[in-house]
Amino acid sequence: MRELLTPVVVAPMAGGPSTPELVIAAGRAGALGFLAAGYKTPEAVEAELRSMSSPYGLNLFVPVPPLADPGAVERYREALLPEAERYEVDLPPVRLTDDDHFAAKVELAVTYRVPLVSFTFGVPSAEVVRALRAAGSAVLITVTSGDEARQALAAGPDGLIAQGGGAGGHSSTFTPAMYRGDRPALDVLAEVRAVTGVPVVAAGGDTPALLAAGAVAVQSGTAFLLADEAGTRPAQRAVMLSGAPRETVVTRAFTGQPARALRNRFVDTYSALAPVGYPAIHHLTAPIRAAAAARGDAEALNLWAGARHAAGRPGPVAAVIDALRA
Ligand SMILES: Cc1cc2nc3c(=O)[nH]c(=O)nc-3n(C[C@H](O)[C@H](O)[C@H](O)COP(=O)(O)O)c2cc1C
């Protein structure tokens, strides 16, 4: 696996930003890129796998256990009714489970012998890890603490991704009720390295500092959101280029899983009300987010971004990679 990893890794970014063009351009610029399988149909994932030639990775969402208290999601649905009115959409009935076609996506990874497969939101079974490794894939599991690292190691991965609290987008935390996103990436890396000798990729911090601290590679997402090849929504690009820097916060308001996002009206209104509840809350807010995107209204969009988002610059992915290496 070490021979596949490059010091800069382009993170998987589900929901649009990750495109095959981004991954291919990263490869040409000498960096490993990840396709993001999250939310996509298996057919869409397969089409992307077919377009790959140089080494690449594929990221999968591990299904989370069903909610203990669905009532909290019903109450949140009530709280969101004014938003439904505002954006002229109907909120769907609460949908508690969705495995994101996990088994079919694992099967595709096996069939296409994907060089690197990473997991987020939890630990895949040892059987899944064995099947991927038998097909020739190297397996990485994302963790946010030493304790999660121990749990992940039991599944037999080739390495771990240590995600720091400043990371943009969803946290991979296995305990979303407790997650605050306040642990620096260097601390998480040190804690994870203390429990294992397997290679550790870091995420959510400064690339040279994390490499110097022993990370085999650093996976960055936010820095690539403004790349020409990224599929970032125009409304998010506009906010990031507006010259009026916004704070980022960790919020469950959009999906029920803590995620770091740029503050906007939706974050400020609903963060205190949103319970833990991925994927139920993801489905609940989807029509609001879709309507806001169609209107070019960034105030009800999930503007995933990391704490260091202000350093982002538009341009080709190769230039972003060079800037991260420096
Ligand atoms: C827009 C966006 C989408 C993301 N989607 C995923 C994803 O689908 N799977 C995943 O494992 N990580 C995802 N992440 C988290 C990254 O893997 C990584 O932890 C994070 O980007 C690192 O912090 P940085 O954004 O400050 O570079 C996403 C991050 C962003 C910014």
Please, could you describe this protein's structure?
The protein is of the alpha/beta class and 326 residues long. The protein has one domain: TIM Barrel (Alpha-Beta Barrel). Helix content is 36%, strand content 14%. The protein is built from 13 helices and eleven strands. The strands form two sheets. Strands 1-2-3-4-5-6-8-9 form an eight-stranded parallel beta barrel, surrounded by seven helices. Strands 7-11-10 form a three-stranded antiparallel β-sheet, with no helix packed on it. The mean pLDDT is 96. The structure holds flavin mononucleotide. Flavin mononucleotide binds next to β7 and β9. This is Propionate 3-nitronate monooxygenase. Pfam families: NMO (PF03060). One of its GO terms (molecular function) is nitronate monooxygenase activity.
Key terms for this structure?
326 residues; TIM Barrel; eight-stranded parallel β-barrel; three-stranded antiparallel β-sheet; 13 helices; 14% strand; globular; binds flavin mononucleotide
